[in-house]
Design a protein that fits this description.
Layout (H helix, E strand, L loop, with lengths): L1 H9 L2 H18 L1 H4 L1 H8 L3 H29 L1 H22 L3 H15 L2 H9 L7 H9 L4 H16 L1 H11 L1 H10 L11 H4 L6 H31 L4 H29 L1 H19 L5 H29 L4 H30 L3 H28 L21
Helix pairs in contact: 2-7, 2-8, 2-9, 2-10, 2-12, 5-6, 5-7, 5-14, 5-18, 6-7, 6-8, 6-11, 6-12, 8-9, 8-18, 9-15, 9-17, 10-11, 10-15, 14-15, 14-17, 14-18, 14-19, 15-16, 15-17, 16-17, 16-19, 18-19
């Protein structure tokens, strides 16, 4: 308890809360089409391949928007960037409420939902910017736990769609976005951890090999989390013939587990190191992925998904304990780049699973291919970890604390 009090005193909790809500509600909007997948696919008689495309399009669009928003935030401020983005999200949702009537409209709306997916790097950098190195993992984990928006969408969207129609859900979401927007305007403060650098200096992480190793790691952890989260309602509806609301409820069990363990992953990484935490994450996730290939019962499938999400969620927290240590002066830019590539990975899995089901009648091949990619990334990470622990982190990936954080900054 004393340690958590020290953590809270070391930073600016209202900004951390604003960053969490910003990411949480944005994430819920980002995955709306996935949460309503059974309703949309039933109305337009979609094939498994079309479902995969529909739920992955917001992911792809959001990934492409993340890095530009991260760069912009370095010049106009992260708080201002968040306010601009949330305002754009509200307008996009109003378009969905008034104008989405066909499957082509749904695909266009998927691109607009991608605006919400751009929030990642800005939210995490904003939330952790007030906190010292030894608490970066926990601060990143709390802000990043906003991916619980997947559970929020899976819980509420099917129920609202059942009673009011799935198009109306966009309107409800527009109203809900006013809450995080208000909190951001009223309570958040721009963090002090900015060094004035040129655009070329900010963009150096694009050309560094370390950045692309992190990209690959995040394709597995966050890409796997996001890809499964968007596809699960359609998976349950198709595979086990449960109701649309039941499919959403089962998705909540898995996604909420992964959101909670993101905080645990950040905390554990502060204690034992992000690299050691990622080792555990990959082993556990692989057990779950290969277990799902066996097409087990509904109960076993749900437990395996919960295991996968627990590991992947912790892996997301561990990855972003390491990012601010590697790029302390350009965390928003580096985080947005890594988040962008990781989110692109989130578009891989729904398409893999959709095509696997359509072409083979089973989802097993999709899980097999993604599991093989995870093994490759795990082995690559082991090779680079040996170099990283000699340069910018301690053994296991713990922070090197060279100077005390300036006290009083949080009180400004």
């Amino acid at each position: 308890m004393a340690s958590f009090k020290n953590f809270m005193k070391s930073g600016h909790p209202p900004t951390l809360l604003a960053a969490f809500l910003y990411f949480d509600f944005s994430f819920a909007v980002w995955v709306l089409n996935g949460a309503m997948g059974p309703f949309i696919s039933e109305q337009f008689h979609l094939t498994p391949g079309q479902i995969g495309l529909m739920v992955s399009l917001p992911t792809l669009a959001g990934a492409l928007m993340r890095f530009p928003l991260g760069v912009i935030s370095q010049f106009i401020g992260r708080k201002r960037a968040a306010i601009v983005e949330m305002s754009a999200i509200v307008l996009a949702l109003l378009y969905g409420f008034f104008f989405v009537k066909s499957f082509h409209n749904v695909l266009a709306m998927g691109v607009l939902l991608g605006i919400a997916g751009a929030s990642f790097g800005v939210a995490l950098s904003l939330g952790s910017g007030w906190f010292p190195k030894q608490y970066k993992g926990l601060a990143m984990g709390i802000a990043g736990a906003g991916n619980s928006g997947t559970a929020l969408a899976a819980l509420l969207a099917p129920r609202l769609a059942m009673h009011f129609g799935w198009q109306a859900v966009y309107g409800f979401a527009a109203l809900m976005m006013l809450l995080p927007l208000s909190v951001m305007i009223l309570f958040a403060k721009e963090p002090p951890d900015i060094e004035h650098q040129s655009l070329s200096e900010h963009l150096k992480c694009l050309w560094e090999l370390d950045g692309w190793v992190f990209n690959m790691i995040y394709i597995i952890t966050f890409g796997g989390f996001l890809g499964l989260a968007t596809f699960l309602p359609s998976f349950y509806f198709s595979q086990f013939h449960v109701t649309k609301v039941q499919a959403g409820s089962l998705t909540v069990l898995a996604t909420l587990t992964g959101s909670l363990t993101r905080v645990v992953g950040g905390w554990l990484s502060d204690k034992i190191g992000g690299l050691w935490t990622l080792d555990i994450v990959f082993v556990v996730a692989l057990v779950g992925i290969f277990g799902l290939m066996q097409s087990p019962s509904l109960l076993a499938t749900t437990l395996l998904f919960m295991l996968c999400f627990a590991a992947l969620g912790a892996g997301n927290g561990a990855t972003f304990q390491l990012v601010p240590l590697r790029w302390p002066a350009a965390t928003a830019v580096a985080g947005s780049m890594i988040g962008e590539i990781g989110a692109l990975g989130g578009s891989i899995l729904p398409n893999l699973l959709g095509q696997s089901k359509q072409r083979t009648g089973s989802y097993s091949m999709g899980f097999l291919i993604y599991g093989g990619l995870a093994i490759f990334v795990f082995l690559m990470m082991q090779s680079f970890a040996r170099v990283w622990t000699k340069k910018w982190v301690k053994s296991g990936g713990r922070a090197i604390v060279s100077e005390p954080f300036q006290e009083g900054m949080a009180a400004d």
